[in-house]
Prior knowledge:
β5 and β6 form a beta hairpin. It contains eight helices and ten strands. It is an alpha+beta fold.
Amino acid sequence: MAKHNRWSKVKRLKAVTDSRRGKIFSRLSREITLAAKARGGDLDGNARLRTLVLKAREANMPADNVDRAIKKGTGELPGVVYDEITYEGYGPGGVAFVVQVTTDNKTRAAKDVRAAFAAFGGNLAGSGAVAFQFLHAGQFLIAKDKTTEDTLMELALAAGADDVITTDDGFEVRCALHAFDKVALALEKNGIKPDSAELAYIPTTTVPVTDPGIVEALENLHIALEEFDDVQQVFSNEETE
């Protein structure tokens, strides 16, 4: 996770192997169900759902799976009741973590997350203990070959985005949570396909990490957490070389 860069994670997840594909499908199904439950199953009226369906197609998730997930969210099919939980904690080296979970068993989820932190020299913390070190906002990552800085700046800001940041990897668009759907729709209408589109916890302060042992432990903690089906997203604020 060099320099807490979300691009590195996007590239890693795009290289998902067949052995992990089932877990990716499971997580996407939960997100799709929750998005449909929150704002309905109409893709034209639910930008968050539309974004997730596009992500599912990119992952080659079967259309029947997507359809069932939507119908579970709208109540057309019976489904499991999921709870959305956000855990906060500290990893090795005092690095702050925010772990987003969607689960049908809160006891199991808490046990798994706590065990992962403990296994790699970290610990869970109370609500609000580390969240202040992150900006909770909409985040879109867009490769430079998909648009120009001027074009993206104009349309994103007009749609309600707060900032467009240019990096070596590409463009990052940030917006308030309530503006996510509008920005997503503006990008789609202009034919700009983000490499990543999510409601993210973006570090506002970072923890420099240079010790190779701590770097390895942090990477292993990320991997351990992401192995759990209940875990949807893992955010952290380490800064490495």
